[in-house]
Design brief:
By secondary structure, this protein is α/β, with parallel strands linked by helices. The chain is about 50% helix and about 10% strand. The strands form 3 sheets. Strands 5-4-3-6-7 form a 5-stranded parallel β-sheet, with helices on both faces. Strands 1-2 form a two-stranded antiparallel sheet. A two-stranded antiparallel sheet has the order 8-9. α2 packs across α9 and α7 packs across α11. The protein is globular, with a radius of gyration of 20 Å. The N and C termini lie far apart (about 60 Å). About 35% of the residues are buried. The structure holds iron/sulfur cluster and zinc ion.
Length: about 300
């Protein structure tokens, strides 16, 4: 027999058992729970202010699609807010064209304007071309840098006052663990907040596990596609992801406690070094941690 919903007085059947919280939820209360977490997370990270122009990073995958849907739902009566979406086309044959098509479909249905920028046009080459060079690092390393560059640059150019991304709890916990393993304290610090010169970012799905985002998308009838990027399994993140999923299966709550543990710890991490002067990339002129930014470094390597 399917168990009932844990909400008081609810007589519906549960569609999910949250092992980490011990609760069962019916569809209605599951949707409510996810949206409550999203609102709480947004208030915690950065308030949406009157007149905000919000750029949503939309890949066409389940996370960003569900996020855009949720934002439109949560803020449906806020006429002062403006939403638009930005998609990066990395040039990954057999994969990205499908998700871009889905992004177009989702943006269309939600009546949100979508801007698509390709690696080829912005940098002069596709991710497939980078991958074919056989560099030591996995394609994801290059992909992440260039995608962030497009998002930062275009959000600013298009006048966004906030950037919202679809990173879920799994993504966040993977990043935390990767940085622990590498001992990268600077990146751990930056995870808490971006530097001033960039449009501020919010990750509303940060407290929602990946599986629950997928279930939410399904419940909301959001079109999703299940194709995976052919390069994903080459990354270190993939190894960490597998490890975390195994831990979570055997010890429910692992991901959640890693996230909470990081939050407690982050209070002790050093804040941005005072007096450290902001550098400008000598190639593109944009804010950078070093004389040449990571994106321009890749462009030079490719040339
Ligand atoms: Fe880029 Fe890696 Fe994501 Fe593929 S899996 S889109 S290469 S970051
Ligand atoms: Zn640069």
């Amino acid at each position: 027999m399917t168990p009932g919903c844990s909400k008081r007085k609810c007589k519906n059947h549960a569609i999910i058992h949250q092992k980490y919280s011990g609760l069962h939820f019916c569809e209605y209360h599951f949707v409510e729970d996810v949206e409550r977490k999203v609102k709480k997370e947004m208030r915690k990270q950065l308030m949406v202010e009157r007149g905000d122009k919000i750029a949503v990073a939309l890949s066409g995958g389940k996370d960003s699609s569900a996020l855009l849907y949720m934002l439109k739902k949560i803020f449906h009566n806020r006429n002062d807010l403006e939403f638009f979406a930005i998609a990066a086309d990395e040039g990954i044959n057999g994969f990205r064209s499908l998700t871009i098509k889905n992004a177009e479909k989702v943006a269309n249905e939600l009546e949100v304007k979508l801007f698509i920028f390709s690696f080829e046009k912005e940098f002069g080459f596709t991710l497939d071309e980078i991958a074919s060079k056989g560099f030591e690092q996995a394609p994801c390393t290059f992909c992440g840098v260039l995608r962030r560059k497009i998002l930062d640059r275009k959000a600013k150019e298009l006048g966004a006052t906030k950037v919202v991304t679809g990173h879920n709890m799994d993504d966040e916990v993977q990043t935390i663990l990767i940085n622990y393993i590498r001992g990268d304290v600077e990146r751990l610090r930056r995870l808490r907040g971006r530097r001033e010169e960039f449009v501020p970012r919010i990750k509303p799905l940060r407290a929602v596990p990946e599986k629950e985002v997928a279930l939410y998308a399904l419940a909301a009838g959001i079109p999703i596609i299940t194709t995976h990027c052919p390069y994903a399994s080459l990354s270190f993140r993939f190894t960490v992801k597998k490890m975390l999923n195994e831990c979570e299966m055997k010890h429910p709550g692992t991901k959640y406690s890693l996230l909470r543990g990081y939050e407690r710890l982050s209070g002790f991490l050093p804040t941005a070094q005072p007096g450290k002067k902001l550098l400008r990339c000598t190639r593109c002129g944009e804010a950078s941690a070093s004389r040449i930014c990571k994106a321009c470094e890749i462009v030079e390597r490719m040339n």
